[in-house]
């Protein structure tokens, strides 16, 4: 028997579909109960690096939008441009992450990939300048990492697996842009910490991907290896954060380039100052009283202005 929350959600989804004239999506048929065959098919395709090929086949076979069931949970997949535009732009507020936060949280914490609503918008505003065109007009930062990538490719004519090299290249350039300091995982004399970070991030990322595939049963995938990889990633980033905090304050603009981490640091300082001012006002009005009265709240003008904002 379906749980009460699931019945409510199903009824709500049907009502939403009726309001917007949505037709039922064609279903991707399962050969085994609960769609276990689909999960095994996905994991096998992933192991053989044929995952995108498998998804393309499903959409070509069933349609641009399809319904599928994994372990009793209904999920939808779509490559329909109008649906993607609605989810990511025109009707963004109608969609939420639901399970995604719980699935991603051990690795990514509370950030743009796990937030909804106002918190997500705030994180997006902090990140938006990072993707402005002028950020990438100077290719000097890329050239160093491209040289490191080329140096990792053997000079003989044998086959080369470029995927792990591209992963590390992306990690090195992204960390440089976001943190103001690269992991340098491609350099032959790179630090052990940078190389370990790249390895542990990949391990944790693969766990998160497999948790996502299990949907409601994501909690079945975890364990000490996953926790240790997440902790290693957090420790590496925390060390960079500590260094940036201890360095002379330069603000979010460094050498004419926006550094996302420094913008976050500035934002955190602003929030802490705001909290401190609120604490001071509350203490000045109420002293050590455990309970507030309506009259006390009327005296807190700064708190009232914050709430209005």
Key features?
two-stranded antiparallel sheet; globular; two-stranded antiparallel ribbon; 60% helix; mainly alpha; 309 residues
Helix and strand layout, with pairings?
Blueprint: H1 4-19, H2 36-47, H3 51-62, E1 65-70, E2 73-78, H4 81-90, H5 99-108, H6 117-127, H7 140-151, H8 163-179, H9 192-213, H10 224-246, E3 253-254, E4 257-258, H11 260-286, H12 294-299, H13 301-308
Antiparallel strand pairs: 1-2, 3-4
Helix pairs in contact: 5-9, 7-8, 9-10
Q: Output the strand order for the largest sheet.
A: 1-2
**Separate helix tally:** 13
Largest sheet properties: 2 strands, antiparallel
Question: What is the alpha-carbon Rg in Å?
Answer: 24 Å
- The N- and C-terminal alpha carbons lie at a distance of 46 Å
Q: What overall geometry do the principal axes of the alpha carbons give?
A: globular
Amount of helix: 55-70%
SSE run: HHHEEHHHHHHHEEHHH
Strand content: 5-15%
Q: Strand tally, please?
A: 4
What is the residue-mean pLDDT, rounded to a whole number?
Answer: 81
Helix/strand structural class? mainly alpha
Low-confidence stretches: 1-5
């Amino acid at each position: 028997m379906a749980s009460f929350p699931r019945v409510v959600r199903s009824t709500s989804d049907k009502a939403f579909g009726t309001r917007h004239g949505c037709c039922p999506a064609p279903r991707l048929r399962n050969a085994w109960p609960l769609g276990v065959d689909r999960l095994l098919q996905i994991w096998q395709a992933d192991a053989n690096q044929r995952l995108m090929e498998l998804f393309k086949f499903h959409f070509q076979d069933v349609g641009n939008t399809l319904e599928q069931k994994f372990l009793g949970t209904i999920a939808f997949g779509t490559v329909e441009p109008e649906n993607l535009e609605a989810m990511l732009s025109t009707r963004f507020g109608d969609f939420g992450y639901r399970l995604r936060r719980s699935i991603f949280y051990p690795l990514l914490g509370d950030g743009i990939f796990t937030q909804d609503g106002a918190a997500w918008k705030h994180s997006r505003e902090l990140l938006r300048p990072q993707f402005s065109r002028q950020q990438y007009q100077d290719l000097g930062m890329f050239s160093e990492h491209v040289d490191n990538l080329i140096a990792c490719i053997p000079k003989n004519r044998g086959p080369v697996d470029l995927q792990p090299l591209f992963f590390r290249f992306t990690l090195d350039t992204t960390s440089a842009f976001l943190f103001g300091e690269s992991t340098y995982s491609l350099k032959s004399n790179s630090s052990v910490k940078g190389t370990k970070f790249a390895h542990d991030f990949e391990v944790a990322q693969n766990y998160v991907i497999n948790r996502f595939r299990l949907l409601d049963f994501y909690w079945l995938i975890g364990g000490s290896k996953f926790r240790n990889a997440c902790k290693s990633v957090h420790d590496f980033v925390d060390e960079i954060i500590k260094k940036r905090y201890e360095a002379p304050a330069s603000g979010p603009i460094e050498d004419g380039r926006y550094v996302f981490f420094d913008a976050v640091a500035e934002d955190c300082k602003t929030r802490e100052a705001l909290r401190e001012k609120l604490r001071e006002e509350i203490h000045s009005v109420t002293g050590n009283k455990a309970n507030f009265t309506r009259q006390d709240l009327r005296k807190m003008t700064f708190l009232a202005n914050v709430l209005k904002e």
